[in-house]
Amino acid sequence: MSAILMPKPDQRVLDRRDAIIAGLAKLVPPAALITAEDERRAYETDALTAYRQLPLAVVLPSTTEEVAAVLAFLNAEGVKVVARGAGTSLAGGALPAEDAVVLGVSKMNRVLEVDTANRTIRVEAGVTNLGVTAAVQHLGFFYAPDPSSQLACTIAGNIGMNSGGAHCLKYGVTTNNVLGVKMVMMDGTIVEIGGEALDAAGLDLLGLIVGSEGQIGVVTEAVLRILPLAEGARPMLMGFQSAEACGACVAAIIASGIIPVAIEYMDRPAIRVCEAFAHAGYPLDVEALLIIEVEGSEEEIADLIDRITAIAAKFEPSTFKVSQSEAESAAIWKGRKSAFGAMGRIADYMCMDGTIPTGQLPRVLTGISEICAGYGLEVANIFHAGDGNLHPLVLFNANKPGELEKAEAAGADILKLCVEVGGCLTGEHGVGVEKRELMVHQFNRIDLDQQMRVKTALDPQWLLNPHKVFPLEGRPV
Amino acid sequence: MTAPLRPTSEAEIEAIVAEAVAARTPLAIEGGGTRDIGRPVQAARAVSTLGLSGVTLYEPSELVLSARAGTKLSEIEALLAGNRQRLAFEPIDWRPLLGTSGEPTIGGVTASNASGPRRIQAGAARDHLIGIRATTGRGETIKSGGRVMKNVTGYDFAKLAAGSWGTLGILTEVTYKLLPMAETETTLVYEGLDAARAVDAMTTALGTPFEVTGAAFLPGEPSRTLIRFEGFSASCGYRAGRLSDMLAAFGAPERLHDEASQSLWTAIRDVRPLGATGSDVVWRISVKPTDGPQVVARLEAEVSARTFLDWSGGLVWAAIDGPADGGAATVRTLVAMLGGHATLVRAPHGLRAALPSFQPEAPAVAAITAKIRESFDPAGVLNPGRMG
Question: In a designed cystine with B107, which of A239, A431, B31, B134 is the match (CB 3.0 to 4.6 A)?
Fold first, then answer.
């Protein structure tokens, strides 16, 4: 176990484990309650696999009412709850604790209603991100946020972490695409917030809930906005001999009034690994590569490509290639979307998620190289260039003692650099357990205290996913 | 009430709030004073944000702008126009409807979560607001978000601040993401549809890939159903052409371009199609778009409302003259049945003091709201009661 500490489990809860399990058994069917150690192992970590904690028990309710009963019981018993979607969090957002019950939403996975006239879909929160699009694609619609884990990750997790994706430059992130939720508070109260109308009454509680990392309530249903599929889309590849030229090209495209649907950036190490994995046709002789995608009719796509070509020419790209077929487009995106997996085949890595003002790109890239070199580690950079959301992958060897700690230290330095230049610790993955202790670099005591007051107001005992988001020191509970 | 206090720094605001807390004397918060909506605040003193003025950051190539809360919206829009950029959520100017004067401020735009016809495509202020600084009812200045486009670090208090009408904190600085101004715009105008047919046409249009950025229905002789496109001119022309082919069953539309189109949508944004509102009470009703025609029909039949529809039917503006309660019983019952919410945006002070202007929340939701508000403003000194 490395630098991030989990608090000592509550012995009083551990001692009452049998009684707690017996209580849960009265509330859900036997198949929905997991208590055997080998079966609980499946829930001991998420995509931040360096951290593992065997939960007290796992409960998998099928209805909102079951969730309410489980939470009311655990609230009365003073037992912590970690809500879990598919466990794809890269920030340890779903990392359990030994004295906590994992509440998984995987059995609540039905699409409840599709309404194309009002461009909405109502789903249970365990539906996968791609499952939402799959339910409406034949009708000519899609669900816009597209995190790389979209095949597996759930809407519950997307709402918890306010997930983004490659295409949010045009379509926004989760918070811009959720219209309503049904949610259970820790005391078992069921609330409905928002609905099918475009805006909701009163304070923007939805805005608070989305991205609250499972600390305010457990979302069991959601009304999401669906959007009509574009007539067509086409990616292009642009390679540059320097990060500076590449960054300047992105700024010039945006300044010209064009907002492509996606602008993705990869540096040389990332290109090499992704190309070896996906055979996407990425150039191997460039320092920086952009994948730029535009949408529309054939004519509109041709027009946008012409405009972008003219702008890019000023920055002398050494490669410029527009996809010529569906297969080529798919390969280009496969390379990008499987980047994390591809990297995982050659090394262990810590995936960072800071966001910076896009004008700071060259400075920050240089800084990242220096930081990693200082720790004797390699780094590959993949990020959403249009919005400045960086994903440096700090490579290390987990079998080598001390390397994980070094990678974590390098990661922390990178995130501090992001904050220093006017950015933030996390653009779309969430704080989770991973960046909890770094929050003091972005927020002062007053900021953090107010956030924690809201947590306390809505979950007075701090039972919902308590070990995340806020530094352990200075908590009210 | 004495002249509003006009602090020029966060430190001064903090001191004013601390004093108000100590003396238990609530504060009314105001910017330009153009959006006199909600329950009239009973406060001994008013605090104006007009002393906090000026753009503090503008990076056109990064599509980002920060301004102190009292900065005039017109100043920001002029600055952005110089770089062919804009706040894409098309914030409403309430002055024509409410008969207010003064200059809308960016703080007011934020505190009211302003939006406009482009809401259906671009969202509201909350969708473009990326950072805030605000002094809470504890006399402490907090920040949330920042100046970058993607940020999930900590709870999203920027969203909470948007539409909180000064009841959680006094905004001191806000940061917005920007978008390029469209090169051109085109509006298709269909004449003579009834509300139901119009909503059918508009929701169909919004289900196409042709990126409609406005969809409104104006009753009259003849009625007009309006569908807007924005972008590069070749693209606008193409999309308008494809859509009018698809909507051939609704008639042959007239096409309006540029200024003719713009002035029409500015009027819709500012609720001018209700005409002279005289002594009417005006409601803003938000429902799912396909419920719009039913709202119109019921309000016309039961309280002789004059109405028009924006957001493809999802936003009903209704002027009601006559009932002592301003039609509240009818409107609230209807919205409760359909789902959605209604805001009493224009009414005499007496009526607004007696009735909740904002949609009453379900008890469990109201409890959450109250707890959050209590955490920001435990003494209840910031615009108490304004949201009901």
Answer: B31
Angstrom distance (rounded) from CA B310 to CA B373: 31
Distance CA A36, CA A290 (A): 48
Beta carbons of B365 and A469 less than 8 Å apart: no
Query: What would you report as the CA-atom Rg of chain A, rounded to the nearest whole angstrom?
Result: 23
CB burial readout A74-109, b (16+ within 10 A) else e: bbeeebbbbbbbbbbbbbbbbbbbbbbbbbbbbbbb
Is any Cβ of chain B less than 8 angstroms from the Cβ of A229?
Answer: yes
Contacts of B115 in chain A (CB under 8 A): 199
What are the boundaries of each domain within chain B?
48-180, 184-269, 272-354
Half-sphere exposure of A216 (CA within 13 A, CB side): 31
Distance between CA atoms of A354 and A369, rounded to whole angstroms? Answer: 15
Name which of A83, A125, A76 is nearest A100 in CA terms.
Answer: A83
Residues with Cβ < 8 Å from A28, sequence gap 6 or more?
A: A59, A60, A61, A62, A66, A69, A70
- Interatomic CA distance for residues B70 and A224, integer angstroms: 35
Nearest to B152 among A251, A387, A427 (CB): A427
Nearest residue on chain B to A299, alpha-carbon basis? B235
Q: pLDDT by residue (tens digit) across B56-86? A: 999 999 999 999 999 999 999 999 999 999 9
Could you tell me if B230 and B182 are in contact, meaning their C-beta atoms sit under 8 angstroms apart? Answer: yes
Tokens standing for residue B177? 């993401």
pLDDT in tens, A166-193: 888 889 999 999 999 999 999 999 999 9
Say yes or no: A431 contacts chain B, CB-CB below 8 A: yes
Asked whether the predicted pLDDT for residue A134 surpasses 70, the reply is: yes
Q: Helix, strand or coil for residue B82?
A: coil
Whether the ipTM is more than 0.95: the answer is yes
Burial readout A418-443 (b: 16 or more C-beta within 10 A, e: otherwise)? bbebbbbbbbbbbbbbbbbbbbebbb
Q: How close is the nearest chain B Cα to the Cα of A438, in Å?
A: 10
Which positions ≥6 away from B249 have C-beta within 8 Å? Answer: none
For residues A265 and A359, what is the distance between their CA atoms, to the nearest angstrom?
14
pLDDT over 50 (residue A436): yes
Alpha helices by DSSP H, B24-163: 73-81, 95-98, 106-111, 119-122, 125-128, 157-161
The helix (H) or strand (E) run that includes residue A312 is helix A298-313
CATH code given to domain A347-438: 3.30.70.2740
User: In which band, very low, low, confident or very high, does the pLDDT at B277 lie, cut at 50, 70 and 90?
Assistant: low
Q: Write A339-345 long-range contacts (CB < 8 A, 24+).
A: A339/A148, A339/A266, A339/A270, A339/A273, A339/A274, A339/A382, A340/A148, A340/A393, A341/A277, A342/A273, A342/A274, A342/A276, A342/A277, A342/A278, A343/A270, A343/A273, A343/A380, A343/A393, A343/A395, A345/A273, A345/A277
Model confidence at A3, in pLDDT bands (50, 70, 90)? low
CATH architecture of B48-180: 2-Layer Sandwich (3.30)
Q: Which CATH number fits domain B272-354: 3.40.50.300, 3.40.50.720, 3.40.720.10, 3.30.70.100?
A: 3.30.70.100
Q: Apex CA B56: angle with CA B54 and CA B60, to 5°?
A: 115
Closest listed residue to residue A166, CA positions, set A138, A203, A129? A129
Class of domain A111-228: alpha beta
Is the pLDDT assigned to residue B1 strictly greater than 70?
Answer: no
Over residues B296-348, the pLDDT tens digits come to: 999 999 999 999 999 999 999 999 998 999 999 999 999 999 999 999 999 99
Q: Nearest chain A residue to B140 by CA: give it.
A: A446
